[in-house]
Amino acid sequence: MPVQNLARSDIVTAAPDESIQELATTMQDEGVGCVVITDDGAPVGIVTDRDLVMRLLASGTDPNQVVAEDVMSEDLCTIEDRAGFYHATELMSEHGVRRLPVTDSDGALTGIITIDDLNELLADEQQELAGVIRQQRPPY
Q: What is the DSSP string of 34-64?
């Protein structure tokens, strides 16, 4: 199954020069744990709620002196929308990330897929398999 069938298209984005206060407010308002940082429609980084805590608060940095590009993960791991969801799980495991921005063949941001999305898919598949087993199991 291609990632484009699973990815969410309602991505929350911000510019690299967005203030940390604006990012945190956006995360709260949108009920998300990350904001994809884009430049001309292409993902260039990601800021997670964990980044705000670990890279900003824990270091004692003044939030008023910092913008998105100062705390974003720059070594962004993305996945092309035509790739399979098994590839997404491999990338997440290999890079130790829980979220993958999804891009088209030109590198433009088209969605995001999270470990929660993949877990939900796997749970649905397990339910389907359980139904098959229940139908074929002899009565005891």
A: EEEEEETTEEEEEEEHHHIIIIIITTT--GG
- The model's pLDDT over 2-21, given as tens digits with 9 standing for 90+, comes to 888 888 889 999 999 999 99
111 forms bridges with which residues in the sheet? Answer: 102
Return the ∠ at Cα 3 (arms to 131 and 33), rounded to 5°.
95
Q: How many CB atoms sit inside 10 A of residue 78's CB?
A: 18
pLDDT in tens, 56-94: 887 888 888 899 999 998 889 999 999 998 899 999 999
Using a 10 angstrom Cβ sphere, with 0-12 exposed, 13-18 middle and 19 or more buried, the burial of residue 101 is buried
Give the separation between CA 44 and CA 41, rounded to whole angstroms.
9
